[in-house]
Specification:
By secondary structure, the protein is of the alpha+beta class. It has 9 helices and 21 strands. GO terms for molecular function: photoreceptor activity.
Length: 462
């Protein structure tokens, strides 16, 4: 790696640069980079995170070199050099002829598996997984493809949020891929004019975290490759590739695999957008029935017998309760009196959200009394007459099994003193019996909750 400042002079370089660059490429701190490279830098622009890759830019001691030019957040340019690999077999052709979003969940599942098979063939890695981030930050392997003879499977297993910390998730979102050719390789020092270390967030050559290196070793992984799945600006998932031996890939092959993942992500985003539009279109029709129920009864309170049953069916709830200044009415099996008083006081006094979801009240609300209710969708809205109404749609405890890749609550393991705290050593299937939680609320419930709030505001008793 060579780092160039705004004056196109070398501010930093990696200690191994002489092993890659030809003798006629001067690498001295404060020196100008060659004129041909100045022209390449000028094409990069000034936007942080911008990157351009070039093939066969130099003839190094060991062969042709590819290069990636990256503008970092400090305005510096990172120039990364990679072995060319131009004699490798021709990668699969790009799938760029339009992005066709899946028409259904089953088709989305099929496209997901097809993508993994393609990435497996494209990269030559032994195992490729489709890793989805859940609402609570944990992750789950939704699909998997692997080469013949690869033992074991992570399909259907969950991994705790701590396995991929937030700082790593930010870096995944900022970069088209992250390749670790050899997790056990020693880090190479970066030599600079100043003690200030350049920002390497967008660098593919940044060293591997020691803890992550041990984590991979514990999984039996020497090389790792990841592609982000970014939906709506958020890191929705990852394509994670594992290999038991060190493995380097050329930039062309990485770029083609990355393009396939991006095409898949575009289709997935379009699928989510279509589903959201279909949901919004259907909400008017669905909630018109609720308005008719209230209109026939005269007001919300009088209608609650029928309206509560309708809400419970729409939201797959076990109970529906309405709280007002003068009391409450309910339908089904909702909160007991003490639990309702506790949650209502907290929702009014300490929660600023207008729509709030909980799947484990005993864990989320310290002091929550013993109750049959484990989860709730809570909505509060002020009517035209100024009364603040609260609606609680409740779900009972749902005892179920969750399969993890290793025990997520295993006591912290100590390393030999070099790293301090080491990651988990076991990733075998470990089944947790989950109690104190309700059935999970799906991703559409918050949107339905907002529509319910709008309904309450319009129909609430003055």
């Amino acid at each position: 790696m060579v780092v160039v400042d705004q004056a196109l002079r070398i501010s930093h370089y990696s200690a191994n640069v002489a092993n890659f660059l030809p003798a006629d490429f001067p690498v001295r701190l404060g020196e100008d980079i060659p004129a041909s490279f100045c022209e390449l830098v000028s094409q990069l622009g000034s936007e942080p995170g911008r990157r351009i890759q070039y093939e066969a830019v130099l003839q190094g001691p060991a062969g042709l070199l590819d290069a990636v030019f990256i503008r970092n957040a400090q305005g510096l340019v990172l120039i990364e050099f990679f072995p060319g690999f131009h004699d490798e077999c021709e990668p699969l052709p790009l799938l760029t002829q339009g992005v066709v979003p899946p028409a259904s969940r089953s088709e989305a599942d099929s496209q997901r598996q097809s993508l993994l098979e393609r990435v497996l063939q494209q990269t030559g890695f032994q195992r490729v997984m489709y890793y989805r981030f859940l609402e609570d930050g944990d992750g789950e392997v939704l699909a998997e493809a692997k080469q013949d003879g690869v033992a074991g499977s992570y399909l259907g297993l969950r991994f705790p949020a701590s396995d991929i910390p937030q700082i790593a998730r930010v870096l995944y979102r900022q970069n088209p891929w992250r390749l670790i050719p050899d997790a056990a390789a020693d880090s190479v020092p970066l030599i600079g004019r100043e003690a200030v270390v350049p920002d390497l967030s967008c660098s593919d050559l940044r060293s591997v975290s020691p803890v992550h290196a041990v984590y991979l070793a514990n999984m039996g992984v020497s090389a790792a490759l990841s592609f982000p799945i970014v939906v709506g600006g958020q890191l929705w998932g990852l394509i994670a590739c594992h290999h038991a031996e060190p493995r380097q890939l050329g930039l062309a092959r990485l770029a083609k695999a990355s393009q396939d993942v991006r095409s898949h992500t575009m289709g997935l985003s379009a699928f989510f957008a279509q589903r959201r539009m279909q949901l919004l279109d259907g909400l008017v029709r669905r909630f018109s029935q609720a308005r008719e129920i209230v209109h026939e009864a005269g007001d919300v309170v009088a209608a609650w017998g029928k309206l509560g049953a309708w809400l419970a069916a729409e939201f797959s709830a076990d109970g529906a309760q309405l709280c007002m200044d003068e009391g409450d009415v309910g339908w089904g099996e909702g909160f007991e009196e003490s639990a309702l008083a506790f949650v209502d006081e907290w929702f009014l006094g300490q929660n600023t959200e207008q729509v709030w979801l909980a799947e484990s009240l005993p864990r989320q609300l310290p002091g929550y009394p013993l109750s049959r209710v484990a989860g709730v969708l809570a909505v509060k809205a002020k009517t035209a007459g100024g009364q603040l109404l609260r609606v609680y749609l409740t779900r009972h405890e749902h005892i179920h099994d969750v399969a993890w890749g290793g025990n997520p609550d295993k006591p912290v393991e100590r390393h030999d003193g070099i790293l301090g705290i080491a990651p988990r050593r076991s990733f075998g299937k470990w089944v947790e019996k989950r109690i104190g939680r309700c059935r999970p609320w799906d991703n559409e419930v918050r949107l339905l909750g907002l529509k319910l709030r709008e309904l309450v505001m319009q129909l609430g008793r003055d």
